[in-house]
Structure formats: C-alpha cells, structure tokens
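Intended use. Records like the one below are meant for learning the mapping from a protein sequence to its folded structure. Do not use them to infer anything beyond what is encoded.
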Amino acid sequence: MSLPVAASASPSSASSPLLPASLAAVSTLAELLDWRVAQSPQAEAYRQYEAAGRRWQSFSWQDTGARVQRYARALAGLGLERGARVALLLPNGYETVCLDQALLSRACVPVPMHALDNAASIAYILADSDAALLVAQSAAQWQAVAQSLAQAGSALPALRRVVLLEPPVGGGTVGAPAVPVQSLASWLDEAGPDSADLPDQPPQRPRPEDLAALVYTSGTTGKPKGVMLSHANVLENVKATLQRVAPGPDDLFLSFLPLSHTFERTAGYYLPIAAGCCVAFARSVAELAEDMKTQRPTILISVPRIYERVYSALQGRLSGAPLKARLFKWAQDLGWRRFCRAQGLDTGEGGRGAPAWLDALAWPLLERLAARPLQAQFGGRLRLAVSGGAPLSAALARCFLGLGLPILQGYGMTETSPVVAANGVADNDPATVGRALPGVELRIGERQELLVRGPSVMQGYWKREADTAAAFVDGWLRTGDQAAIDASGRVRILGRVKEIIVTSTGEKIAPADLELAITADGLFEQAYAFGDNRPFIACVVVLSRRGWDGLAAGLGLDPESPDSLQAPAARAAVLERVRALTASFPHYAQPRAVALSLSPWTVENNLMTPTLKLKRKNLQAYFSAVIEQLYRR
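Structure written out for the chain above:
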C-alpha cells in the first residue's frame, strides 16, 4: 500500500530528517506517526469527550505531533536509557496515545496495563518489568499498589518516578529512597515551554528490532507473562491487516477496548494511524450505546461480549412481542440467505427457502422494518464490525449478518501482535476465522494444535527463557488452540489444547463451545462449564435481570428473593433450557446440573480477564462450595 507524501511540515516530522516515501518503507511505529503527520497534518486524528465542557473535542494529526513532542521533552528530562520500561496504568484516551507515541519516539518500551486491574497484579507487573516510570490515572491507584507492595514486603528498586494524570493528594513511597510522585501538569512544566529544544534528539530513535511494547498476557491460568513485541512485529501486522481490511481517511473508529489489549493496540490504534482514520474514544462501556448513536462509527473493533449484549437486549425486547419476533425471524432468515448467496456459502437449509428473486422483492420492506432498527443501535452507518479475542456464536453471527451488520471474525493472540487470520468483507465465512494474513504461515501440529510462523511473531517472554523455548516447536509458535484448515485456507478454531474437560469417564469436552451455545439465549448473561475428573458436566450461569424476572414470575417465585435462585423449580426450568440449547452436543457433553446467579463476573471482581475471558481457576475457587453441592445431589 503506497500513498503520496504531502509537502506540509509538522512539529513531529521535524525530529526525523528523512521521512519514508510510502507506508511500505516505514520501519518503526515512531516513524509511522511522523509519516502520518506529514501526510495529513490538518485532518482529524482523534475525538474525545470533554466532561467539563460537555462536548466532543477534536485533535488533528498536527496537534497530536505537537503533543507527542511535549511528552518526549518530559521523558528526555528523566534521562531514561534506550529500552527503559515505562508502565502505563491509564484508560483509553488522547493523552494515553500521545504518551505511548512519545515513549516509542524515545526508544523506550511501553508496558500497558489495564486501568481496572487489581493492585496485586499491577504491583507484580511493575516489579517483573523493572519499570523505571509509572504513569497512572489517580493517586488512589498508586496508593493501592503501594499498599499491596507493603503487605507483601516487596519493593520496586527500578522505579524512579510516579506521574499522575489527576493531581495527587500527598506523596507516596516505596522502599528507600522515596519514589517522587507528581502530577502530569507539574511533570510537563519541568520540561520547559513547547518551544524548547528536545535533548539528544534524534540519537535515541528506535530501531525496527527494538521492543515497542511489553504486553502482559491476561493470566487466565496463572501469573501473567510479559510478551516482547518489537516495532517490526507490530508494524508488519498492521501492514498485513491493511491488505485484509481497507480502512480509509473517511472512516471513524470508536475505541473502547483497553489499550492494554494487543488487539486494540494494533487494530484500533496503530492501524488507524497507517490508514489516516479518525478515532473517537468512547466515554465508557456503560455509555457505549449512546456514544455509538452520537458518534456513528463506520468501523468497530470489539470482542464478542459487546455484540452479545446487543443481541441479548434484542431477544429480550422480542420475547414479549410474538408478531415482531416473527417479523425479525423472517428478516433474519431472508437476510442470511442473501448473505450466503453473496459469499458463495451454503445456506444450510438444504435447498429450502424462497428463490433469490422473491427474496430480492421482500428485502426492502424487511430491511426498513427489522434491519435498520438494529443497525441504528450501532449508529446506522457501520460498514465494518470486527470481532476477535474469543469465538463468536453462530446464532449471533447469523442474526447480525442476516440483518445487514458486516461482522468479520478474526483470530490472533498477544504473541502474534496479534492478528493471525481474518475474514474480509468480500470473503466472509463466519463459521471460520478466515484465512491467514499475508506473510503469516500456518500449519497443524500434534493434537491438532495450530502453529504460526511469520514476521509478527513475538521475540519471546520477558525474563522467561524456559517459557519462551516451550512456546516454540521447530521455529513455529504454539498457539495452544486446536484448529482445522480447509482446502481453501480457511481456519476453523476447534477449542483449546489445555482447556479441555476430561470427565471421570474419559470423555473430552471443550467448555468454551458449551458456554457459547448457552449464552446464545438471552436468558443467560454468562456461563461457566466444568466437570474435570467428575462423572458429568455441570455449569454455573449468570441470568439476565429481565430474563430472571420473567422466569420467576412464570414459576410463581419472588424474583427479588435470593432463595428463589435455589428453588428446585427454578433450577429445573433453567436446566431444561440449557439442555435444549446444548442438544446438538453429544449426550455426555450436555450439562446435568446447574447453579443460578444474578451477580455478573467482571474484571473488578477478578473473575474475568481484561479481554473479557473467563478466569477459570478463579471461578473454580469462587464457586468451590457450589460445585461440591452440585455433585452431591
């Protein structure tokens, strides 16, 4: 992909004596921003809500270049050496992006952390990464980390300073000597005015092989590991992704996934820089629905959980309106046939259904009555909805694609920067995760494990040589996922190599498949299946509030009473529904016992990872007494 170079200069480009003539020649992420600023200095780069003024504020690429330079001056004043790790405990936002870019321009290594992670995990990452600087949102975050360190009798000898976006209340110390704690404003003031020269620039510019991030894995099964990704790793992934999905200058991304998630860093942050797109930062997940309607994005990078919430709300609205439900089902089925014909896929209806010409006649009316209301929930002009991080259920894909929402499922992992394979708009089989990106090689190893090789594969795990060696076989990265690759190159993920339940009868079941099937029903918000070394499969489910109210009323139970969740009639009714949803699974894989809950599993209560995956070990410990009761019945 090659774009012409604009003649305009900018504050950012002044630090780079010679800019590449095309994106193909860009070799580092710092160079990528310089190139973008020179290409379209006045174009809108970012949009963020200003709470004080109750308005959305816009920033151009030239604004961004100048802001990055100011952060770079402050960093230079700390005298951080090449490769110094800087921990970012910040929410998504303009300042986070600018600080990240300043670190990259100084050949430092960002260590992104989830803003809602618990204090013990944050303390572990700070210590393991030997972070020299921590930039956090608030004094409360830092105080919680300091308290966790004190309780554990630990210290952070490498940490030189803590900078807080919100003015701190008092100071903070860790070990001896004390670690200075200051506000962002005072830190930037120390660097001098914007017109000041930037010390030792450009000698400390990054190289392609330098680390661009130390991203700690979610830790679903133990202590998180720091994944070492170089500038070349990430940039090659960005360039390959651009060949599969082609965003342009007129596109607007809505960013809400944490920038500690490599999926968001590459696809929702660096990719828009390469393509010259604008990124609007959502205020919060709670306000996401409103932000989609007001900002009207054209591209959405998301995990399945967000689409599931919209789908669940839709199912809830239709449950009490049988006529409207039939209309939506008609529109979905007809739209699904149209989608399959356009993609050259089998509709799965065995030749049944109306002919193409009749569907074409009926679609305009159904689109107006059923499809457009759903599309309006996303702002009404979404042309690309990317789903990654976890499998997308078949029921959800059929509904959204049938009603005109172009969801593209892909596959990746932190260790691959992260995208490995993805569907395209004109080549979209939602039962698969698409084909390998250009430059990425795939093969199937032992136990059907998917192996990956290519320029976006990580440098290894930070300070973990044994783990790094174990992650590779003959130069191929082991993904830990079981997969099948068809003759056309499409990849189908079958399950986890290790996340397999083996019952006491020797049967093997992938729990994620069961959980997906269960949560396709709007009654269920979340599901956790288990049964390792047990005689049968059981599960704990989190019920939606609306679904539970309706179910309890139908059973003559008080939905407000906690005892109602334990009522045999409620358990029996829910189990019957679960069995119906998993009827396509082998008999031994269908849950035979269920426990009910209304309390969601979240990042805050440490039962979900920042990428909204189940923390199975934590759930097992949390529900240990409930699990024992289920198997004693």
